[in-house]
UniProtKB/TrEMBL annotation:
HAMAP family: IspG. PANTHER family: 4-HYDROXY-3-METHYLBUT-2-EN-1-YL DIPHOSPHATE SYNTHASE, 4-HYDROXY-3-METHYLBUT-2-EN-1-YL DIPHOSPHATE SYNTHASE (FERREDOXIN), CHLOROPLASTIC. It comes from the Bacteria. SUPFAM superfamilies: Nitrite and sulphite reductase 4Fe-4S domain-like. InterPro entries: Dihydropteroate_synth-like_sf, IspG_bac, IspG_bac-typ, IspG_C, IspG_TIM, NO2/SO3_Rdtase_4Fe4S_sf. It comes from Breoghania corrubedonensis. This is 4-hydroxy-3-methylbut-2-en-1-yl diphosphate synthase (flavodoxin). The lineage of its organism: Bacteria, Pseudomonadati, Pseudomonadota, Alphaproteobacteria, Hyphomicrobiales. The gene is ispG. Belongs to the IspG family. GO terms for molecular function: 4 iron, 4 sulfur cluster binding; 4-hydroxy-3-methylbut-2-en-1-yl diphosphate synthase activity (ferredoxin); 4-hydroxy-3-methylbut-2-enyl-diphosphate synthase activity (flavodoxin); iron ion binding. Residues 15-284 form the IspG TIM-barrel domain. Pfam families: GcpE, GcpE_C.
């Protein structure tokens, strides 16, 4: 059975156009991220949006929480356009989104999508009025809306109502199940109301975020079975470092395998001074590892053991991987298809030659205590054996030459001769 046969077909969803990007329908799963700058700081926000876009974020969400932030949005959009960065900007609104969008029409026009939270779009009698005002503005400017439910700010009136119903039910369910139902129903009721106000299904994206892996899987599996809206996946408050990465990959990986999800965000808490683009890289690696998309060439490397106490292969694998990722923003334009490249950097003779043959280009270092010599395989055939202290630099040059030969303009040049 092939790997692709193990993947469940994507759940059918209505396609939504977000600026130049399509979410849902037959489009591939879209990677998005969010800035953590003060949006009112135009220079800092432009720099971070640009970095996220260059890293591969196809949508970028920014906080719009006050007048100064809303006023900055069109300037951010314009600065990005001057840098030839055409990434759609999503405005993240809470509490006063209706007022900010109404008071700042240039902001409403500049954004590619609005994200609103039904748990805090308005309270009691004002809820429907303020929700309706945002939908009316979305209709005016022809913008899609993400209705993003979050269990940290869930509609308490709806939750209380469902809890009361459950308490008198002949077959009550656990409180956690009621909370999950409240999350789902909040999103679906809000989407239904948006449609009543005139917003088409091709302008609505839903999300239902929780911070527990099993709850996220359960909520989205249920939600996916009850609607055909495009779905945004994300584990909220995922955490820092490996914990956030593992939790996000475990939960979203299962849902993606089931064909659920049209756009994803990996919500990582950055280390102090950490790089915000890390969440983009993790999201791309999740999709690429599962076989849904290809973003950057794959560098396979062995984990190392007692036969590989030399750090040469580790340094070489890291150097090539970093070099590829750093250059991908340029290479995507210069070398179409380069993201499909497979490189192998192996540390000893046990699995090294076989793994290298399976890669497009691979090297198998000899292991500990042996003469520094390493065969290089190109398209499954040994083409040369590298010797001496310059192995790393020579192989790196061969990788760059291979990329130019295979993906560059014009006809491919002949491969190197066999040793």
């Amino acid at each position: 059975m092939t790997h692709s046969a193990l993947l469940k077909p994507r759940r059918h969803s209505v396609a939504v156009k977000v600026g130049s990007v399509t979410v849902g329908g037959d489009a591939p799963v879209v990677v998005q991220s969010m800035t953590n700058t003060d949006t009112a700081d135009v220079e800092a926000t432009v720099a971070q949006v640009a970095a996220l876009a260059r890293a591969g974020s196809e949508l970028v969400r920014i906080t719009v929480d006050r007048d100064e932030a809303a006023a900055a949005v069109p300037h951010i959009r314009d600065r990005l356009m001057l840098k030839n960065i055409d990434v759609p900007l999503i405005g993240d609104f809470h509490y006063i989104g209706h007022k900010l969008l109404a008071d700042h029409p240039a902001c409403a026009e500049a954004l590619a999508k609005y994200r609103i939270n039904p748990g805090n779009v308005g309270f009691r009698a004002k809820r429907d009025t303020q929700f309706s005002q945002i939908i009316d503005i979305a209709l005016k400017y022809d913008k899609p809306v993400r209705i993003g439910v979050n269990w940290g700010s869930l509609d308490q009136e709806l939750l209380t109502h469902l809890m009361d119903e459950n308490a008198v039910s002949a077959r009550p369910v656990p409180a956690a199940a009621v909370t999950r139902e409240a999350i789902i129903r909040s999103g679906l009721l809000s989407a239904e109301r948006a449609e009543e106000l005139g917003l088409g299904r091709d302008k609505i994206i839903l999300s239902a975020k929780v911070s527990n892996v099993q709850d996220l899987i359960a909520v989205y599996a249920d939600l996916a079975g009850r609607c055909d809206y495009a779905l945004h996946l994300g584990l909220t408050e995922a955490g820092m470092g490996t914990k956030g990465i593992v939790a996000s990959a475990a939960s979203m990986g299962i849902l993606l395998q089931q064909g659920i999800g049209d756009t994803i965000r990996v919500s990582l808490t950055p280390e102090p001074g950490g790089d915000r683009t890390r969440e983009v890289q993790v999201a791309q690696e999740l999709l690429q590892t599962m076989g849904f998309r290809a973003f950057v060439p794959v560098v396979a490397a062995c984990p190392g053991c007692g036969r590989t106490t030399s750090t040469v292969f580790q340094e070489l694998a890291s150097d090539i991987q970093d070099h590829i990722r750093d250059n991908m923003p340029i290479w995507r334009e210069q070398y179409p298809g380069v993201e499909a490249l497979n490189v192998a950097v192996m540390g000893c003779i046990v699995n090294g030659p076989g793994e290298s043959k399976h890669a497009d280009i691979g090297i198998s270092l000899p292991g500990t205590g042996e003469t520094p010599s390493a065969p290089v395989f190109v398209d499954g055939k040994k083409v040369v054996t590298l010797h001496g202290p310059g192995i790393a630099a020579e192989f790196k040059k061969m990788v760059l030459d291979y990329i130019e030969n295979r993906f560059g303009p014009g006809e491919r040049r002949p491969a190197a001769k066999s040793a």
